[in-house]
Amino acid sequence: MVIELIASLGYWNWWILGIVLLCVELVAPGTFMLWFGAAALVVGLLSLLIDWSWQAQFVTFGVLSIASVGLSRFFLRRKPSEGEAPFLNRRAEAIVGRGFVLTEPIVNGRGRLSIDDTVWRIEGPDLPTGTPVTVSAARGSRLVVRQSDAP
């Protein structure tokens, strides 16, 4: 009885499965269910064009799923995405190389510098207020500065 039910399934069942898997991908992103959904849609298209057994359909679905997941892992690992904002969560690293003018002196190698909307702790040689400095490194949430010729 179960075999007869499986054997009677048509191409539209594969399309429904593919759409459901693509919807699952939307809810739980990670580009994993996407490939199973695509494989189900391809098997549905092939079932529309070819009259073949349910065993061949399941084998084709399995092969396409494994192949598409494997290929996606290969290509995604090979070409990592840098994104539009590579320093989004690494603000201190984004400031390295920029020049500023000290608004407070550096005393005993420590000071503070207002950059954009944040006050940063800085390290560097003792320098008076008004000295142009360049951020040379970031150590955690501290910036290392050195004296420069121009801001």
TrEMBL record:
Q: Where in the cell is it found?
A: Membrane
What residue stretches are annotated with the NfeD-like C-terminal domain?
92-146
- Predominant subcellular localization, coarse grouping: membrane
The reply on keyword S-adenosyl-L-methionine is no
Span-the-membrane segments of this chain are 12-28, 56-76
Keywords, alphabetical: Membrane, Transmembrane, Transmembrane helix
Pfam families, per this entry? NfeD
Q: Does the keyword Transmembrane helix apply?
A: yes
- What's the protein's topology in the membrane? Multi-pass membrane protein
Write down the superkingdom of origin.
Bacteria
The entry's protein name is NfeD family protein
What is the phylogenetic placement of the source species in the record? Bacteria, Pseudomonadati, Pseudomonadota, Alphaproteobacteria, Hyphomicrobiales
